[in-house]
Amino acid sequence: MQRRTLLTSLAALAGSSIAPFARAQADYPNQVVRWIVPYPAGGGTDVLARTVAEAMRATLGQQVVIDNRPGASTNIGAQIVATARPDGYTIMSADNALLAFNEHLFGKLAFSPEKDFSYIGGISRFPLALVVNPGFEAQTLKDFIAYAKANPGKLNYASPGNGSPHHLAMEMFKARTGTFITHIPYRGAAPAMQDVMGGQVPCMFLDLAAGLPVIQSGKVRALAIGSAQRASQLPGVPTLAEAGVANSEVFAFQGILGPAGLPAPVVSRLNGDLNKALASAAVQKRMADFGMEALPGTPEQFRQFARSEALRWGPIIKATGIKLD
Question: Residues 42, 45, 47, 49: is their CA dihedral positive or negative?
Fold first, then answer.
């Protein structure tokens, strides 16, 4: 009798602890959702996150607040999310750096892209274009390569930071073309782009999410684009392959992660609202305006896409010898 009473009490206690958690999942979301962006405000990642967050507010029924936490090749923001409570109220933008590059760039990470995050879904991918200041003497990519070879070490390029897609795109370009161009890292795409426009640094790889308006306005000049086909918004700009640099497709991609252990109903809710946002007219127009390609789908599809990019970039990063620690 005593044993039966003890078991009954334990079962009741377990049920009382599980019930509030189950109700919290059923009521999700019932408070503000914090969206970590591991880059400064004003860059392509930030613009995209704010656009999608605005669309998601309508279906989630809660505010989605952007919290910019730049630094350490996205590792600062990633650490915040990896250690957050897995309740769906802390999510983040995740891109090539976190999901494809950092495991190859750092000897040791405080978290694993595979084990310490819940994959929620993809947002978009967008190609990078090699751009120069309008006053730079090279008019074509062929001219640019010839200038770089004739002036080894005298040409600088900007990037949003060490280990960014823009940084590694140029390093791959250098390896493919046999050129020596010095890296000048910035804290975000916006300040890097400003200095290329101002002529302080002559060139950079620039993602279309941030760069399309300044390319179209003539504030920078695009020599080539790192996509498989030409961008419809820039029909006069050749791809890198068309301009003679083969096997050099370079693009940035974005998706959403949460901490590991997010309950399946929460992941499903966030993924569904994300896909609704990507299908909305406002988000589709904004993406088209910035040369983006939407990446709707399931959490597993996004995870597989990210892992395929990690496998693609691993040998490239190893060949360049770049390390960030």
Answer: negative
